[in-house]
Amino acid sequence: MKKVAVFLCLALSLAVSIPRVTAQEKPAWAPYPNVVGVWTGKAYFMVPDGHTDQYHRFEFTEQNGAFLKGTHAWEILGKNLQSHDGSEHTYEATEPLLGVIAQDGTIHLVEHGDQTRFQMRLLNNHTLDFVATEGGEHPLVGHGVLVRE
Fold this sequence. Notes:
The protein is mainly β. The chain has one helix spanning about 1-25, and strands spanning about 35-45, 50-65, 65-75, 85, 90, 90-100, 105-110, 115-125, 125-135, 140-149. The chain has an 8-stranded antiparallel beta barrel with strand order 1-2-3-6-7-8-9-10. Strands 4-5 form a two-stranded antiparallel ribbon.
């Protein structure tokens, strides 16, 4: 009986203290990393007709806290296949983009011209890796590494 009473007291004290721990104020997030500038690199993509090697150039021209604005230029190296820029099939394009940096540091970007979405991770102050996806009429998937110029 004594063991049951001790167990019940312990369970009650945990039930009372756990909500206080979870209700505490969250710590302030670290400042968002500054990604303004030009980031370039090679990427590998798959489109319905096959695989392509590509060159990518992201220029973040504005950053306001977590929010980003800039352009994304891409070129299919070797011109073996074409991709779509939102209005036509082509080997290269430059498209405006908007982005946001999530609380965990992941960078999410969308382009104006088409439906491509980019998810980026800052590996260090001068290196980003990214994954690109686009569904719909002109699907693609890809990944690459970018270096700040």
